[in-house]
Design goal:
Layout lengths: L3 H19 L1 E7 L1 E3 L3 E9 L4 E4 L7 E18 L2 E16 L3 E5 L3 E4 L2 E4 L3 E6 L10 E3 L30 E7 L3 E3 L4 E9 L2 E9 L6 E5 L8 E5 L2 E15 L3 E5 L3 E14 L2 E14 L3 E6 L14 E10 L3 E2 L4 E11 L15 E3 L3 E7 L6 E12 L3 E5 L2 E7 L4 E7 L2 E6 L7 H7 L23 H29 L1 H7 L1 H17 L3 H20 L8 H11 L3 H19 L8 H16 L10
Parallel strand pairs: 2-10, 13-22, 24-32
Antiparallel strand pairs: 1-3, 1-11, 3-6, 4-8, 5-6, 7-10, 8-9, 12-14, 14-18, 15-20, 16-18, 17-18, 19-22, 20-21, 23-25, 25-28, 26-28, 27-28, 29-32, 30-31
């Protein structure tokens, strides 16, 4: 009996040792998360009672949006006459990280049996919103059995029983907007995600969401069900179906409508056997409808500054001139490089005030952009091709590129410095295009006129009276004809249109003379004069307003189809290009001449469309 107290003490120590080994306080969290997405961190106390839980410290870039939420679970089993039991207390926290990089979640602590237990700090990598987080591992110190979680679990086939209906809480498609409120032309990221606790064998969109009122720029990606996210405190496998940048074109409330999807989910029929539980996959057909999403669009502030053309974002501008040495009648290029982030792809060419001694062509834009992250960034190159017509010193005056900065809510400007142009004398003469644009009114007659004074009395001569009688008789004889033609001849535009073909054919005959002499420069000058003059007469466009945009608009109003309009503009471009680069122009002049004649003939056969009356 003397050894009894020793045995009792030893048994108590053993029990305490077992209890100490079984009690644990651990943390579970994902290794990687996306910027702006919610993620869950769970602190689990096993096989013990605890109180006075203290949440962990987190960086300033991490915001707690939910928790701590406490849940308790208890399980017991009886095997071979022995009873075993386990319990756990879980504290769930929901966070959002606002910046990319690595963050550290500090230690959480709880009091157990009068002593405070703490978890170890963990590190989580925050990825940009357009990258896919890796769900293959989680920051966890010990695994959590599915039996401790309850409900349908994405990683537990036993919980995905085929006898259960797939609820809207277990599988759904969600449209998410990065911002609830933006300005016109300010980007908002729209992400369409599939949240599911089941594996998916087939996914078919039957009705895609519509984006009325937006310009859309899709972010390239490959949908895959390889990410795990926490939504409303529950974990899901997530596939990003679509991510795009939306640029609103009007103010007010804009709505992205819901989409419809046919989805085949996989559940399991579970069978108990002497060798354990067997699971057999079963496919279930589902029709899923996503939510709708709305964004409030704020109008751009009024009044809008002069020179503002709709650029929204943050931009810088640089200019360049090629070649450095300019000569008359040789093409040069003045370029603006607009770099920044915003609706850069949809920027319009700024107005540049060239000297009147330059023949300037329509600007061309080349956008090199990257639609990643939360907006579109890159560079737009705007090229202004011009041909100096006179030698001397000129200047492209300083100007400003104005844009609206949604971060400051104000209009901002970037100065574009003036550019000096030193033009040397080159070979050639002012182009026909330049003359048509700048010589609409004939020059003043500057040569001296030879005048003489005479004093004759014609009233005594028969010729004097015949000079009155013959015109009077002719007037009476023709008055009926003139009255009949009065309306037609009063319509100046119509008369000009009727003689357009004759004038053009005469000019084409003049161009043929240059073909025999193989004079490419003279041929293209004459041909371009014929085309510009014909279109000016045919479409009743003043020469001062002749440009390809006006010609295209008037051809459309006249009733010319799209193919013939495209041929007309393409031939004008070829002839203009040949003016300042004849060595690179088409060498088969007869073929170009025939094409121009055929084009004029085709335009003559087009019947004018009747104007629409309301």
């Amino acid at each position: 009996m003397t050894n009894l107290p020793r045995y009792i003490l030893l048994s108590v120590l053993l029990l305490l040792g077992v209890a100490a080994q079984a009690t644990s306080f651990t943390v579970q969290a994902p290794r990687q998360v996306n910027q702006g997405n919610k993620f869950s961190v769970r602190f689990i106390l096993r096989d013990a009672e605890g109180d006075n839980f203290i949440p962990p410290e987190v960086p300033a870039t991490v915001k707690r949006v939910y928790g701590p939420a406490k849940s308790t679970s208890y399980s017991s089993s009886w095997v071979n006459g022995k009873t075993s039991s386990s319990s756990s207390i879980e504290f769930s926290m929901l966070y959002v990280a606002s910046q990319t990089g690595k963050i550290t979640i500090g230690s959480a602590s709880i009091v157990v049996g009068g002593k405070r237990m703490s978890t170890k700090p963990i590190t989580i990598e925050v990825l940009p919103a357009d990258r896919v987080a890796d769900p293959r591992g989680q920051n966890r110190q010990t695994p959590v059995p599915p039996s401790h979680r309850g409900g349908v679990q994405y990683d537990d086939p036993l919980s995905q029983d085929a006898s259960k209906n797939v609820s809207a809480n277990d599988l759904f498609v969600r449209i998410e907007m990065s911002k609830p409120r933006v300005y016109e032309q300010q980007a908002v990221v729209c992400t369409i995600k599939l949240y599911t606790k089941y594996q998916i064998s087939q996914f078919i969109p039957t009705l895609q969401p519509s984006f009325d009122g937006f310009l859309i720029e899709e972010i390239p990606m490959q949908p895959s069900l390889n990410n795990v996210e926490t939504h409303n405190g529950q974990q899901y496998m997530v596939a990003v179906l679509k991510r795009c940048l939306l640029y609103p074109q009007q103010s007010g409330k804009l709505t992205i409508t819901s989409g419809n999807y046919d989805i085949t989910a996989i559940q399991y029929e579970n069978f108990r056997t002497p060798f354990g539980t067997l699971s057999q996959p079963v496919e279930k057909q589902l029709k899923v409808k996503s939510n709708t999403a709305t964004v409030n669009i704020l109008p751009l502030p009024e009044p809008q500054p002069e020179g503002f053309t709709g650029a929204v974002g943050k931009f810088t501008v640089k200019s360049a001139l090629k070649p450095a040495e300019l000569k008359t009648y040789s093409a040069a290029t003045y370029s603006l490089y607009i770099t920044g982030t915003g609706n850069i792809k949809y920027i319009k060419a700024p107005t540049v005030n060239f000297p009147k001694e330059m023949d300037v062509y329509d600007p061309k834009l080349d956008a090199r952009v990257n639609p990643g992250g939360g907006d579109m960034s890159g560079t737009v190159q705007v090229d202004y091709t011009f041909i100096p017509q006179y030698a001397g010193e000129f200047e492209i005056p300083a100007s400003k590129f104005t844009f609206f900065n949604p971060e400051t809510g104000a209009y901002e400007s970037v100065d574009i410095p003036a550019r000096r142009l030193n033009v040397a004398k080159g070979k050639g003469e002012p182009s026909n295009r330049y003359r048509l644009h700048n010589m609409d009114i004939a020059d003043i007659h500057r040569k001296p006129m030879s005048l003489s004074a005479r004093q004759d009395f014609l009233i005594d001569k028969a010729g004097y009276w015949l000079g009155w009688i013959v015109p009077l008789v002719a007037f009476i004889g023709l008055i009926v004809y003139f009255r009949k033609q009065l309306r037609e001849r009063a319509d100046v535009k119509r008369m000009r249109t009727k003689r357009a073909n004759k004038v053009a054919q005469r000019r084409l005959r003049q161009a043929r003379a240059f073909i025999a002499a193989n004079n490419k420069s003279g041929f293209y000058n004459e041909l371009l004069t014929a085309l510009w003059g014909y279109l000016s007469d045919k479409l009743s466009i003043p020469t001062s307003e002749l440009n390809k945009d006006n010609i295209d608009a008037q051809l459309t109003a006249y009733g010319v189809d799209e193919d013939l309009r495209a041929q007309t503009l393409e031939l004008l471009d070829r002839c203009e290009f040949a003016q300042y680069a004849p060595e690179l122009a088409e060498t088969n002049l007869q073929q170009v001449h025939d094409q121009a004649a055929a084009l004029i003939g085709a335009l003559e056969n087009v019947k004018r469309s009747k104007p629409v009356t309301s």
